[in-house]
Amino acid sequence: MNTKLVRIAELAKENPKMTFTSLAHLLSEGELKICHRELQGNKATGVDRVTKVMYQEHLNEHLADLVKRLKQKSYRPLPVRRTYIDKPGTKKKRPLGIPAYEDKIVQRGIAKILNAIYEQDFFDCSFGFRPNRSCHDALKVLNVYIEKRYTNYIVDVDIKGFFDHVDHQWMMRFLNHRINDPSLLRLIARFLKAGYMEKGTWYASDKGTPQGGLISPILANIYLHYVIDLWFMKVVKKHCQGQAYLVRYADDFVCCFQYKQEAERFYGELKQRIGKFNLTLAEEKARIIPFGRFAWENAKRNENKKPKTFDFLGFTHYCGRSKSGHFRVKRKSSRKKVCAKLKAHGQWLKAHRTNDLDSIMDRIKRSLIGYYNYYCITDNIPSVNAFRLQVIQLLYKWLNRRSQKRSYTWEKFNQLLKRCPLPQPRNKVNIYQLRPELSYIL
Fold first, then answer.
1. Cα atoms in the Cβ-side hemisphere of radius 13 Å centred on 426
2. Which residues belong to any copy of the Reverse transcriptase domain (predicted)?
């Protein structure tokens, strides 16, 4: 499949208008076996409760039957299992859809095919769920647009419940631009309309693509490529006299403009544009803010003490100055993300405070390392240090509640930290160091 996908990618790149008529045959027994091996075995199970280990017991028989059903067009995905996770900064819950294991295998195979085709079409402004691109890359490019280009205004918007409101008809129309294989299109449509199970009840899904599905990220990128990216690059920028830039990570995006009137015009047109595709803006989060090298002067003119800030990809961006006094964009961990992480740490410590002490310390250590890997970027070490101290305070609090008797004084607790030291944060990502393979974007 690798060789065939490389050829498909080459053809897609050579001819942007080419449609592919024969793709479903790529979901062969051998290729699905590779997809099975690539899946992680420790993920949550779907409605059938089948794990990777269970499926592997009779792998060849399962895959032979799966391919037979795919060829006969009798394969039908099971509904996803609906579960909920906390939404940072609010009391709301975010719905997740967990597919059955066999459906994960097929979805992974389809995602590979779609990626091979659409990676050639996607614009450089898109970073989410794409190979060799990350959140840090998006932050670095945005930093250049604000500091080195003529950015004076930021349009900070949020699409309300994007994954829950993807229009299936529009989704299939977008896919038809590049794919004319009825078998593959039928398969994707069945995944979209498989529905979900919640508390033993099946619910139909006439819109949306469930977060948690392996096919959802690429489908989301395809949808937003046609709804946002293509429109911005081919229409919005051409009608702007000043500079205009877009940085998008999945459904989270920020737009930079040189002139206020063009930012306001874009904001007004954006509501109409996404409304055409049955999406809506979260009005309470959407705004246009002065941001850039002249933001301090604008704030003083409007009798504000400081320029406004905006959040993007877990960081609060604010206007700062370098040691030499020049304008700089700085970042710190978003308050709502920090609060959500601290809440998760507190809940875990409360539930596991009676565990073996070494296992508790090991768990906290691994959690901090994961946090550092993302949040330890240029300018953000003080914020991460503050987070580490709050985690230590939570640890002290819950270790003292392992029994009715107070277990630790601060002196004794500090001895524990010397014996089981928690890692110190250090800078992991230089926001000014763009990877060579992405430098052409700028």
1. 3
2. 66-317
In this prediction, residue 371 has a pLDDT band, given cuts at 50, 70 and 90, of very high
The gap from C-alpha 249 to its chain's centroid, in whole angstroms, comes to 6
CA nearest to 205, candidates 190, 220, 219, 215:
190
Q: Rg of the Cα trace of the chain?
A: 25
CA 184 to chain centre: 26
For residue 263, what are the CA distances in angstroms to 152, 323, 350, 416? 10, 31, 47, 55
- Here the tokens at position 183 are 């078998």
Domain layout of the chain by residue ranges? 335-419
Q: What is d(CA 419, CA 182) in angstroms, rounded to the nearest whole number? A: 63
Measured in whole angstroms, the distance separating CA 139 from the mean position of its chain's CA atoms is 13
Give the CA angle between residues 38, 41, 45 to the nearest 5°. 115
Rounded distance, CA 295 to CA 320, Å?
A: 10
pLDDT tens profile 86-101:
777 677 788 889 999 9
In the predicted structure, residue 24 carries a pLDDT above the cut 80: yes
pTM: 0.92
Q: Any alpha helices (H) in 225-294, and if so which ranges?
A: 230-231, 260-276
Pairing of strands 80-86, 196-198: parallel
Q: What is the DSSP letter of 281?
A: B
DSSP type of residue 422:
P
pLDDT by residue (tens digit) across 393-429? 999 999 999 887 777 889 999 999 999 999 999 999 9
pLDDT of 300 over the 70 cut: no
